[in-house]
Structures are given as structure tokens and as C-alpha cells.
Design a protein that fits this description.
With about 170 residues, the chain is mainly alpha-helical. It contains 6 helices and no strands.
């Protein structure tokens, strides 16, 4: 007798791995590399190290975005040189690849689920809260101290042993 889960067994896919179905939608959006007209190439065309496959580069970029690791922390055994992945990331970003990918994903979602465009709004602020100190109270690291940060009458305030003098003055 077969167990109910035998037919449902799937390979677990990590959140940063690019599936074949997803890659088929992403690949047409990737910009093609063209030689720079201002750059003088010393080697003949086709010579040198071949570029990394676009799928491997894209998977490396997704890995950084999903895990939050630094570029230099990319697993070298899987993705190769982190600086090469980052260089291609910058190239693709300058070419508008990520904006095109976002727009394509948004339109695909709109076709599937429908987006109520009239009711969308975004709000946000990036600044220091001016009244935060009054609302939250003292710094949590100072709560356990027995005295206040300002010198109290029971304690001697610190004074330098030598009176202030300038470097140019002699003793």
C-alpha cells in the first residue's frame, strides 16, 4: 500500500534558487553584453575568460537579496568571483533590467489577480522623530545606573590635573 505523500514528493527549493519556470520569464529581459566602443581591446574577440552564465549571475544576485549577505560573502564554490557578480549587477542595473523585471512581474500579477490601481497609496518618512525622547523615556542602557549622567553634589566632578595650556606655550 502506497503512502499518500509518495506522489507529492518534491525537491525543496531554496528561496534564492531560480527555478526553470522563473528563468524562462527572466531570461528574455536580461541585457546582452556589447563591447564598449570607447575601450581598446588588447585581445582578439573571443579570447580571454568567458563571461559567467547569466543564470548563475542572476542566481547570485537573488542570493544576496534574499539572504542579506554582503557581496564578498557569496559562496565562491557556487557563484565564483563575487566581484564579477557585482560588476554584472551594476551593468544590469544601469541597463534598466531590474526595473523591467519589476514591471513585468507587476503586469503578470495584474493579469492573474488584478490590482486596484485607484486605491494604491504609499506613505513614508525617513527622519529622526523630534519628540521621541519624551515618548520612550531614558536610554535603556542608562536605566540601571545608580546616579544621573550629570554630576551630582555627592560626587566630585572630574578636573584635569594640569591647567589648560596651548602647545605653543612653554612651561
Amino acid at each position: 500500500m502506497r503512502h499518500w505523500s509518495e506522489g507529492l514528493a518534491r525537491k525543496r527549493v531554496e528561496s534564492w534558487e531560480v527555478t526553470d519556470a522563473f528563468w524562462q520569464r527572466v531570461e528574455p529581459l536580461i541585457p546582452q553584453r556589447a563591447p564598449s566602443p570607447e575601450k581598446k581591446y588588447l585581445r582578439r574577440p573571443g579570447a580571454g575568460r568567458p563571461p559567467k552564465p547569466a543564470r548563475q549571475v542572476f542566481e547570485g544576485i537573488v542570493y544576496v537579496l534574499r539572504t542579506g549577505c554582503q557581496w564578498k560573502a557569496l559562496p565562491k564554490e557556487r557563484f565564483g568571483s563575487a566581484s564579477a557578480i557585482h560588476k554584472r549587477f551594476l551593468e544590469w542595473e544601469a541597463a534598466g533590467f531590474f526595473e523591467a523585471l519589476w514591471a513585468a512581474g507587476l503586469s503578470e500579477y495584474d493579469e492573474m489577480e488584478g490590482i486596484a490601481w485607484r486605491w494604491q497609496s504609499v506613505d513614508g518618512a525617513m527622519m529622526k522623530a523630534p519628540l521621541a525622547q519624551e515618548a520612550v523615556g531614558p536610554n535603556p542602557t542608562d536605566r540601571g545606573k545608580k546616579w544621573k549622567q550629570t554630576p551630582s553634589s555627592g560626587r566630585r566632578s572630574w578636573r584635569p590635573v594640569v591647567a589648560h595650556r596651548h602647545r605653543g606655550q612653554r612651561q
